[in-house]
Design brief:
The protein is α/β, with parallel strands linked by helices. The protein is built from 8 helices and 7 strands. The protein has a single domain, classed as 2-enoyl-CoA Hydratase, Chain A, domain 1 (Alpha-Beta Complex), CATH 3.90.226.10. The chain has a 5-stranded parallel β-sheet. The longest helix is centred in the middle third of the chain and has 26 residues. It holds the Pfam family CLP_protease.
């Protein structure tokens, strides 16, 4: 095989483990997707820094990246925001998503006044990010509040039932890869829409 040839299909990115530990690498990979281009993002992450989550989410939207997010294992906490920013979202019956209030920590030597200001800032950030999460997923603030506080593990089936993602049966996952390859070979700018149209009706959920 000629190593100089471009790989077939959209760029694939794996968000695995803590977002904060992998922020530099994930940022570089997202910047490797041309503006308006397609990519697949596989999620198996417990979360991480909310600031890192905001940065990845912002890059996806600012560069108009047509990302398809697939929860291969866990997508929890801060990892929910880049997943919500994906144009298309896919889960399996075994996907797990944890919604909970933001958690923060600071250095032990932080001053009292600084800690008070940090708590104020984080409280405001939490409210705004919770609202944004519901907006990106296209669900009501009431549903987000029900899942976030005090915190709830949500299955792929529940997420799909709420209209936040498409549910694909485990034995049908190979069809996703086949459809991406087929759409890429068609070289059509609206390939993502055709992929959804070609999905079996029982496997589609509005996102």
């Amino acid at each position: 095989m000629d190593q100089s040839q471009e790989p077939e299909g959209p760029l694939e990115i794996a968000i695995v483990g803590d977002l904060t530990d992998n922020e530099s690498d994930l940022t570089e990979k997202l910047l490797g997707v041309e503006p308006g281009g397609e990519c697949l993002i596989y999620f198996d992450s417990p979360g991480g820094s909310p600031y890192c989550a905001m940065s990845l989410m912002t890059l996806i939207r600012m560069r108009r990246i047509r990302a398809t997010g697939i929860v291969t294992g866990e997508c929890s906490s801060a990892a929910l925001w880049p997943f919500a920013a994906c144009e298309r979202r896919i889960v399996t019956p075994y996907s797990v998503l944890l919604f909970h209030p933001m958690r923060w920590q600071s250095e032990e030597n932080v001053g009292l006044s600084e800690a008070a200001e940090w708590a104020r800032h984080f409280g405001q950030l939490e409210r705004e990010m919770d609202d944004l999460l519901g907006e990106l997923f296209g669900v009501s603030p009431e549903l987000m509040a029900k899942w976030i506080s005090p915190g709830r593990y949500v299955s792929g089936g529940e997420v799909a039932e709420a209209g936040m993602a498409e549910l694909v049966r485990f034995n049908d996952l190979h069809k996703i890869g086949d459809m991406f390859n087929a759409a890429e070979s068609d070289n059509h700018p609206q390939s993502n829409g055709r992929l959804k149209a070609h999905m079996p009706a029982e496997d589609r959920r509005a996102n």
